[in-house]
Write a structure and sequence with these properties.
14 helices, NADH Oxidase, four-stranded antiparallel sheet, five-stranded mixed sheet, alpha+beta, 375 residues, binds flavin mononucleotide, single chain
Length: 375
C-alpha cells in the first residue's frame, strides 16, 4: 500500500472514531471542499507561472524578480522574507515575525530560505537581461543583490522555477544515471558550501537512522509539534486565505475542514506513523544530498540555501523529484552525531534532501508580491 493510501486510511479511521459528530459535518465539508478546490487550483495557476514578457520597464522587472524569488523553497512555507528595491539592487531581508523558534532557534533556516529566494533571483535576472551578484550584508542581516545589465539568456534552471516543488511522496526506487548525478553535483556546490551525494543503499540506510533519531526527538517535543500544527493549512479555504503554510494536500494528505483536521491531528500525526512514512520515503529514493558549510555563520547558511535551491532546480529540469528531510540537522544532539558520521571537522551539516523519480503533488501557494515588498 502506498504511503499516501496508508495515510488516507489513518485519516479515515480517525474520522470514524469521531462518530456522528463528524458524520453530520461530512456532507457540508464535501461541498465546501469542491468549491475550495477550484479556487485553489486557480490560485496555483496564477502563482506558478513564467512572466508573460521579459521585455518590461525596470520597475516591473524588479517586481518580477521578487515574484520569482517568492517561488523558492522556504521553511514551513512561512515565506520569511521582505524585499527592499532600489534602482540597481534588491535587498533580501528576513521577516522575523515569521521565524520558527522551536524548529529553528538560531534562524539558520530563515537565512537558508533567503538564500533559496536569492538563487531564484540570480537565475531569473539573466532572462531579463541582468546579471545578479549577491553578497551577504551583515548590518542588514540579509543579502544584497546588485543588478547590472548583461546579455539576456534563459537557462534550464530558470525554466524549472515554476515547475519545482517539494514532493513529500514515496518515489519509485529507480536510480539516476551517472551523467545526471554529475549535473546535480555541479549544481549543488557553492562558495564555502559543498554537497555530499549518497546513492549507495548502505549509506542511505545509515542516514535514515539519523533521520529517525531526529524525527523521534521532534515528535517528543511539544513545542515543535505545536509550532508545526500552527503552520498546517488543513483545508483549501485555510490555504487560500493565508497563502502560506503547509497545505495538507501538498504533503500527500487529504484536505479536511480546519476544525476537524485540528481535532484528529494528534491521532494521525504520531511518532510511529511518521517514522514509518520516512522509512518508505527514504527507501524509495534514488539518493540523498547533504549540504555542508565550511563555517557555522549566517552568510554560509544563506549560501547553503542557494546551493539547495540550485540543486532542486537542476533536479526539476531533469524530471526528478526532491524533498528536504532535515531532521538529522535540526536537533542539535543528532546534528553533532551526524557531523561525526559525515567526517566533518568544524563544518556544519546545513540541509538534507532526498531525490528520485515520483509523482507530482498539489503545489503550495505564495502571498502576493505586494505583501513582501517594503516601500
Ligand atoms: C531551510 C529549509 C528547510 C526545510 N525543511 C523541510 C523539512 O525538514 N521537511 C520538509 O518536508 N520540507 C522542508 N522544507 C521545504 C518547505 O516546507 C517547502 O519549501 C515549502 O513548504 C514550500 O513548498 P515548495 O517547496 O513545494 O514550494 C524546507 C525548506 C527550506 C528552505
Amino acid at each position: 500500500m502506498s504511503e499516501i493510501h496508508h495515510c488516507r486510511r489513518r485519516f479515515l479511521v480517525a474520522l470514524a472514531a469521531g462518530g456522528g459528530f463528524v458524520a453530520i459535518g461530512g456532507a457540508s465539508a464535501l461541498a465546501l471542499n469542491a468549491r475550495g478546490r477550484s479556487g485553489y487550483e486557480e490560485a496555483v495557476k496564477s502563482t506558478w507561472r513564467h512572466s508573460d514578457s521579459t521585455d518590461l520597464p525596470l520597475l516591473s522587472v524588479r517586481k518580477e524578480l521578487v515574484r520569482y524569488a517568492c517561488l523558492a523553497a522556504n521553511s514551513h512555507n512561512t515565506q520569511p522574507w521582505q524585499f527592499r528595491l532600489s534602482d540597481h539592487s534588491v535587498l533580501v531581508l528576513p521577516d522575523l515575525k515569521r521565524r520558527l523558534p522551536a524548529v529553528d532557534p538560531d534562524d539558520h533556516h530563515v537565512l537558508a530560505s533567503l538564500g533559496c529566494a536569492v538563487e531564484n533571483i540570480v537565475q531569473a535576472a539573466r532572462a531579463f537581461g541582468l546579471r545578479a551578484v549577491p553578497s551577504y550584508d551583515p548590518d542588514a542581516h540579509g543579502i544584497r543583490v546588485d543588478l547590472d545589465t548583461a546579455p539576456p539568456g534563459r537557462t534550464d534552471l530558470f525554466d524549472a522555477i515554476p515547475h519545482r516543488q517539494s514532493t513529500r511522496a514515496v518515489y519509485d526506487g529507480r536510480s539516476v544515471p551517472p551523467e545526471h548525478l554529475q549535473l546535480l553535483e555541479d549544481a549543488g556546490n557553492g562558495d564555502g558550501v559543498r554537497m555530499l551525494l549518497f546513492t549507495e543503499r548502505k549509506q542511505r540506510e545509515e542516514i535514515l537512522s539519523y533521520l529517525l533519531a531526529g524525527n523521534s526527538a521532534q515528535m517528543d517535543d511539544g513545542a515543535f509539534v505545536d509550532e508545526l500544527k500552527s503552520w498546517i493549512r488543513f483545508s483549501y479555504g485555510e490555504a487560500l486565505s493565508t497563502r502560506d503554510g503547509l497545505f495538507s494536500k501538498s504533503s500527500g494528505n487529504p484536505a479536511l475542514p480546519g476544525w476537524l483536521g485540528r481535532l484528529i491531528f494528534s491521532e494521525v500525526f504520531t511518532k510511529d506513523a511518521e517514522n514509518r512514512k520516512y522509512v518508505s520515503q527514504m527507501r524509495s529514493s534514488a539518493g540523498i544530498a547533504v549540504f555542508v558549510s565550511d563555517k557555522n555563520e549566517p552568510a554560509y547558511w544563506a549560501e547553503a540555501g542557494r546551493c539547495s535551491q540550485r540543486f532542486a532546480l537542476q533536479a526539476t529540469a531533469l524530471g526528478l523529484c526532491h524533498a528536504f528531510i532535515n531532521q538529522p540537522v535540526e536537533v542539535p544532539a543528532v546534528r553533532g552525531q551526524f557531523a561525526t558520521y559525515l567526517g566533518l571537522g568544524g563544518g556544519r551539516p546545513d540541509l538534507v534532501m532526498r531525490f528520485g523519480y515520483g509523482p507530482e503533488l498539489p503545489k503550495s501557494l505564495r502571498r502576493p508580491v505586494e505583501h513582501v515588498i517594503q516601500s
